Amino acid sequence: MRRRGHHTAPVFAALGDDTRWSILVRLGWEPASASELARELPVSRQAIVKHLEVLRTVGLVRTRRSGRSIVHEVEGARLDEVGRNLRGIAAAWDRRLEGIRSIAEERG
Amino acid sequence: MRRRGHHTAPVFAALGDDTRWSILVRLGWEPASASELARELPVSRQAIVKHLEVLRTVGLVRTRRSGRSIVHEVEGARLDEVGRNLRGIAAAWDRRLEGIRSIAEERG
DNA sequence: CGCATGTGCAACGCTGGAGTTGCACAAGGG
DNA sequence: CCCTTGTGCAACTCCAGCGTTGCACATGCG
After folding, report:
1. Which positions on chain D have an atom < 7 Å from some protein CB?
2. Structural domain containing residue B100
3. How many domains does chain A have?
């Protein structure tokens, strides 16, 4: 199986990393460039760049040019969408849980 | 930073792995022992055991003895709790998003 | 224009996590 | 009681992902 497809939700993987989470939080506060982030966070610029690439891939971050630097900012819509997805999953689990409970009860 | 604390949410890491997701889904359908799961899924029993350990650690799976085998089953309450947490996070993001929007708008 | 600053690219190191194999031990079931 | 079946433990391989460093290239600011 060895983590190839991640058919479940690639977003979970993105959210699973601390650094990426930090970046996301930081960008949530205010848009910034890679170099800027590299100065504020305890990781190299390249690391930041790669994380931004991941975040951009899952659609959580958007890129925009400003002057000679490239500013990255949180993609509000996608953020909201992910939120809804999470809610959906929770709801599905609730339903599944309900099912499990029924079965358990009718067996008990 | 190197993924040590995972202060964000250890659950995300658990949910990020495909095999673990499969196990969880399978157990959601019906409780099973490690050997049983190993027969049904394309991974060794030991791999299953380790994944179950992880799932048990984050509280998503509960363990129970039955005959000479150890049956693992989904922890309904925890499942529900995680669902609520996810909703909470989504809500927080919504609020944050709202904040970002306000700032963006007042900046013009 | 030239220098400072930002980005792009490539190669590399390192660790953790996923998975495997092999064997020893435990304990019901017949 | 024995043998089948299930679990426990340990050592090992493998690799994807995080992070680094070094250098080349781009570009705007003064």
Report:
1. 5-11, 16-22, 26-29
2. 10-107
3. 1
**pLDDT at residue A4 tops 50:** no
Give residue-wise pLDDT tens across range B5-14. Answer: 445 567 878 8
Cβ neighbours of residue B93 under 8 Å, at least 6 residues apart? A79, A80, A82, A83
Say which DSSP state B52 is in: H
How would you list the strands of the sheet with A32-33, edge to edge? A32-33, A69-74, A61-66
pLDDT of residue A38: 97
Residue A5 within a domain: no
- A70 occurs within a structural domain: yes
Question: Is the pLDDT at B89 greater than 80, yes or no?
Answer: no
* A67 nearest nucleotide via C1' and CA: D28
- The residue of chain B with its CA nearest to that of A76 is B97
Residue A28 has a pLDDT of: 86
Structure tokens at B83: 């669902």
Say which of A1, A84, A97 has its CB closest to residue B42. Answer: A1
- Top pLDDT among B26 and A95 is at B26
Q: What CATH number should be reported for the domain holding residue B36?
A: 1.10.10.10
CB-closest option in A12, A91, A97 to B12: A12
| CB within 8 Å: B91 and A80 | no
What is the spatial distance, in angstroms and rounded to an integer, between the CA atom of A63 and the C1' atom of D24? Answer: 23
Q: Which residues 6+ apart lie within 8 Å of A34 measured at CB?
A: A45, A48, A49, A52, A70, A72
Q: Return the nearest residue to D20, CA–C1'.
A: A44
A22-54 confidence digits (pLDDT tens): 999 899 889 999 999 999 999 999 999 999 999
Does residue B96 sit within a domain? yes
